[in-house]
Amino acid sequence: MTARGFSGSSSWLPRRRPSGRKALLATLMLLVAVASAFPLLWMVLSSLKTPAESMQVPPVWIPGTPSLDAYEKVSGVVNVGRSMWNSLVIASITTAGILLTSMMAGYAFAKYHFPAKSLLFSVLIATMFLPPIVTLIPLYRLVGSIGLNASLAGIIVPNLANAFGIFLMRQFIAGVPDDLIDAARMDGASELLILFKIVAPSVAPAIAALALFAFVYHWNSYLWPLTVLQGNADAYPIVISLSRLLSYNRGAVNTGLVMAGATLAVLPPLLLFVFLQRFFVDSIVGSAIKG
Fold first, then answer.
1. What residue intervals traverse the membrane (predicted)?
2. CA–CA–CA angle 34, 47, 247 (5° rounding)
């Protein structure tokens, strides 16, 4: 059959119609997205309402006269600047430590061969199933024994290594070709140079995803900082400082104040997610392809 016959025969082939399943799936995804974003949107809008609008029934969805008075009042109740700085120090240093230790340990588990490697990795995975409350008292006593009570260092040091981070890095680094690493060793590259110049760029999406997970978790951490700081209000992170606003949440007239504080607390993690969103999605797609 000639090429013309093939091209002519394509005209009578039935055209595919848009699948109803795809339309239904898109609708469901849109509904889930709206439901997920609605609390955040409501929080921001409520922080801009006047006390009268906050008390109005039925509720006012969009403030008629947006006001920033609630944000000014928050500064009078808690030291927002100091608390935000404390949270930034805790989350940033802890995240950097987790990334460093996870990459180094993950590289060792993925590319090195040493006795009892499988046993050690199994024990590491087992620690992921321990509830945090189980290790709270031992860690607290450990921090006290080295004199780090009531300080930011006492919050940071016990969290510089993370079992999930090591597991995640190990899984992604295992996919880096051994030939690439062997070639770098033959060229005289050190193990640290190989890790940071060859392996790290190859698993950049996983690093970004781990950074996002770690930063958000430790930014929102409440129980451990509250236990370690022992009433040292100058070192309180923003999450603990905002707990003082709970006494203002007994009436609708103070709803804007509480929502303004919550908005300030959620901004840094939200901005980090927006910045790392592309890498986060790439890590999910990459893990799905490998799986």
1. 23-45, 88-110, 119-140, 152-173, 194-219, 252-276
2. 115
Specify the pTM: 0.82
Average pLDDT over residues 61-77: 84
| pLDDT confidence band for 46 (50 / 70 / 90) | confident
Single out the residue of 219, 120, 212 nearest to residue 170, CA to CA.
Answer: 120
Is the dihedral angle over the CA atoms 118, 175, 95, 47 positive or is it negative? negative
How many whole angstroms from its chain centre is CA 184?
33
What is the separation of C-alpha 246 from the centre of its chain, rounded to a whole number of angstroms? 25
> 125-157: string of b/e by CB count within 10 Å (b at 16+)?
eeeeeeeeeeeeeebbeebeeeebbbbbbbbbb
Would you say 92 and 215 are in contact if contact means Cβ atoms under 8 Å apart? Answer: yes
Provide, rounded to the nearest whole percent, the portion of the chain with pLDDT above 70. 86
Domain boundaries, the chain: 13-71, 75-290
Of the candidates 169, 151, 170, the residue with the CA atom closest to the CA atom of residue 93: 151
CATH tag, 75-290 = 1.10.3720.10
User: Which two structure tokens, joined as six digits, stand for 60?
Assistant: 């006012």
Convert the pLDDT of each residue in 146-205 to its tens digit: 999 899 999 999 999 999 999 999 999 999 999 999 999 999 999 999 999 999 999 988
Q: Which residue is listed with tokens 């189980």?
A: 134
Name the amino acid, one letter, at 17: R
What's the number of CA atoms in the CB half-sphere (13 Å) around residue 288? 6
CB 200 within 8 A of CB 218: no
Q: Is the pLDDT of residue 57 over 80?
A: no
Residue 244: CA count within 13 A, CB half-sphere: 16
Angle between helices 255-290 and 163-173 (to 10 degrees): 30
CA distance 80 to 168: 34
